[in-house]
Amino acid sequence: MLPPPVPQIASLGRVVSVRGSQARIGVMASPEVTATTLRATVGQFFGIRGAKATIVAIITEMSRENIDMRDNHVAIASVDLLGEISREGRFQRGVTSYPTIGDAVDILTADELRVIYTPTGRDQVNIGTLQQDQAITAYVNIEEMLSKHFAVLGSTGVGKSTSVSLLLNEILVARPSLRVFLLDVHNEYGRCFGPRALVLNPRNLKLPFWLFNFEEFVDVLFGGRPGVPEEMEVLSEVIPIAKATYLQYANSERIGLKRIETRATGFTPDTPVPYRLVDLISLIDERMGKLENRSSRIIYHKLIQRIEVVRNDARYSFMFENANVGGDSMAEVVSHLFRLPANGKPMTVMQLAGFPADVVDSVVSVLCRMAFDFGLWSDGASPLLFVCEEAHRYASADRSIGFGPTRKAVSRIAKEGRKYGVYLGLITQRPAELDATILSQCNTLFAMRLANERDQGILRSAVSDAAANLLSFVPSLGTREVLAFGEGVALPTRLRFKEVPQHQLPRSEATIATTPSSDSGHDAYFVSSVIERWRGSTTHREAPSDPHVSDRFAERVGDHSLQRLVDSPPLQTISPLGLDTERYSLLKKPLR
């Protein structure tokens, strides 16, 4: 006599086909499940009940097309296979036992989701909640996210900056000994990290010109334009001699200085040792005096003129202060920039909006290169996270755009930084314009709403996970919603970042009012004062007693050409033009 048939377990559906890492599920009609009551949709997790484990799958498509009514199906679901929960209740990524035709399928329970997302160590930090079940907390593994780099991608207005503030604040809490360096392109993050961050800008930054390598220094002298080959050749010859000359001065060998030949200096134009600008100009002038050909003398004369113009421009004072005095301050600069020791401020926020536009790329190149080189020569003794906001500006996919050394410096961190404790975080709204090789080095991706088709295409190519099909609904993500992929998260997940406290919200420090007030006083006196300040931006002038006037002025005046001059000397208390001081003070009044 045959044994009685095993009763079928009530389920949502059955596996109808399996192909590689994907499967198709036939959702069955039942008293509890009909075409009108079915709530399964894309982004939800299914559990395929296999013989050895429950396979975790995520829905990527739901359809009622081409349904065979004889199978009693109300829908067909396409799913990606992501991992499995063993009978002992342990979760692992990847599938060791594939489903078979007819295996039962259910929506994962809250308890099973907790098995997947429960932190397994101290390196897990809370970043939000699952979109499928807001009672389940979403965690990210700090060690995996940092050591293998990460990127935050999203269009303007989707909460990208707020999400970056959230992630970095959580990192600072979880890793108080980790140093963080953030390139703040729009001066948004100055107030986000409170007393834990040192905020640097052109007013308090000291970055001596001799720390710039040859390409970076040429970029500064020529204002971001290609250098003149003849002038660059002269520079490449005299810079090593100027360095050797300063070394002799430093060793108090001023009497009987020997003439130094380029080959005998032991230095290259890129060696980060100090030299004085006056020695550099003197060497160029000396060579010019020996020339009889007038056309050749013009080359030297133009080069001296370029150096003098940049040296006397107040906007470049962060580079050329004490340029003729000298002094080896490299240890102090590195210590100050990269917080060694931290002294309670393990983070540096480098505000770039106040720098002259022509020099921003060179400054970023210097900072990236120094961060990597310090990690290299210290054997990774003090880990550093280097976060690059608007990364597509410095590492463009188009090699003809941007400054080559900056792209090279960022790429070097992306490819080799993890070996030396230098980790990379990229934030961009245009991943299609970012060097694909650099993006591919980021093994944890946070993809927020992206509307541009090219950006979505680059994101698809960067995601190697089994759940890459989830990217099809990236354009429809809500504000603060994100698809998280890669090593830092347990599974490719659609989640919502948690709320950020008010004091940690990014706020631009250069917000311009679109509606001027009726009493703003834009008369001839106002215009004359603006012009005086404009002219003063490129000359060295004594600063007045109120150092914050410049900040308030830049925040209020809407002309973008003036915004680039944010770091010019603040307004004088008494107008040099002899203007009425009461009317002159209009510049100090907020424009509402």
TrEMBL record:
Domain (Helicase HerA central): residue spans on this chain: 125-370
Gene3D superfamilies: P-loop containing nucleotide triphosphate hydrolases
InterPro entries recorded: HerA-like, HerA_central, P-loop_NTPase
Pfam families: DUF87
SUPFAM superfamilies: P-loop containing nucleoside triphosphate hydrolases (SSF52540)
Annotated protein name in UniProt: Helicase HerA central domain-containing protein
Organism, scientific name: Afipia carboxidovorans (strain ATCC 49405 / DSM 1227 / KCTC 32145 / OM5) (Oligotropha carboxidovorans)
